[in-house]
Amino acid sequence: MNSPHNCLFCRIVAGQLPSRKVYEDDEMLAFHDIHPKAPVHFLLIPKVHVDSLADCGPGEGAVLAKMMLKVPELARAAGCGNGFRTVINTGPDGGQEVYHLHLHVLGGPRGQWKVPLP
Ligand code: AMP
Ligand code: ZN
Question: Which pTM was predicted?
């Protein structure tokens, strides 16, 4: 497992690196992606470090459920009333670049997205 001390997203949680916050509570943090792939593109992460979805177990079940249930509320608040896309890249073949579990939320008019549908 990554040491939280050198994990980019743990450092954002700790306030050691800046982020444009979308939402925060005791267990999770949402902030805008630094390289947005759509008009709305933010990341939702658990505050507790876990490398990826593949490293989650029953202990992460509660926070994962809370994150999933928070997504529609945050997406609506960000202006995605017409829909949004939720992505979790996992591992090298999944295209994961930052090894602190994060959920991408993408939205806005489809013609303006920089990523195609799968
Ligand atoms: P992934 O490929 O799923 O690991 O995606 C990592 C995402 O984190 C990419 O979309 C990056 O643009 C984004 N990212 C990397 N560094 C930062 C940062 N400091 N603040 C916000 N987003 C970031
Ligand atoms: Zn971390």
Answer: 0.96
